[in-house]
Amino acid sequence: MENLLKVKELKTSFQTLRGEVTAVDGVSFEVKKGEILGIVGESGCGKSVTSQSIMRLYNEKELVKYEGEVLLEGNNLLKLSEKEMRSVRGNDIAMIFQDALSSLNPVFTIGNQIVEAIRLHEKISKKEAKKRAVELLRLTGIPIPEKRVDAYPHELSGGMRQRAMIALALSCQPKLLIADEPTTALDVTIQAQIMDLIVELNQKMGMGIMLITHDLGVVAHTCQRVIVMYLGQIVEEGMVDEIFKNPSHPYTKGLIKSVPTTNTDVSRKLYTIKGVVPLLSEAGEGCRFCNRCEMATEKCRTSKPHLYSMKNEGHRVRCFLYEKGGDCHEAK
Asked: What is the pLDDT of residues 216-236, one digit of tens each?
């Protein structure tokens, strides 16, 4: 499949009271046309910062500095002016945020917000835009869309608000959809419905999707490839089947081991990765996971591992365990 998005050595640094902090450190990956790429990791691992850096949503005059390349069909988004970037947001790349209630404007109806997004990018009448808004709400499974189009966000349930957010994101038929924890705070049944909807829209519209989540079950059922992030870096990447059957990085192994299954012994405590994700300022000189890793050596504490390629194409691991050997070589 052809690449839709190519991120090359992306670095996102923030100015803080403690000095400059790099929240995304040398991240490289691709999203192919029509595929769903999962990005997983604990809170604080850089998943959302990566997605918002692609959209350039931070204050670039005072807060943030970007390095590297973000290529959307060959066009480097980091080189665009703010005016040019505004035409990309919503039109070429759209985003679904975690909390629909805080993302939607409470003083405008759902329909008005979708109409505004459509008319911002296309020269059509309000009547035509509202007609399309109703169709988008119907596409996302909202019942009686002709009525719901005039509803305010607080008048909808959590599941319907999230569907309205998806309709808003799809209003200009983007090439890439970034879904940042799209099922947060929803009950299990609604979560399944929202994820089924995202997969269905991916198949119908053929757009690329970046799915950011901490739920490995969602990744297993919806994604073709997965990236595991830890403290601003990619620690493992590969096809979903390969990662779940043959996890190689100690962090990935810990994440998968901590997921309960139908065979889990309820009399025993569920496995947990020791410690917590440290502050970026406490990352240290070596491997960022070494302080929580049961297999860490002195080299892990003093040297930074590269991403090493495994036997299967596209499977990469950032760990010194795979530095040498016939089945591994440093990834380029």
From this structure: 989 999 999 999 999 999 999
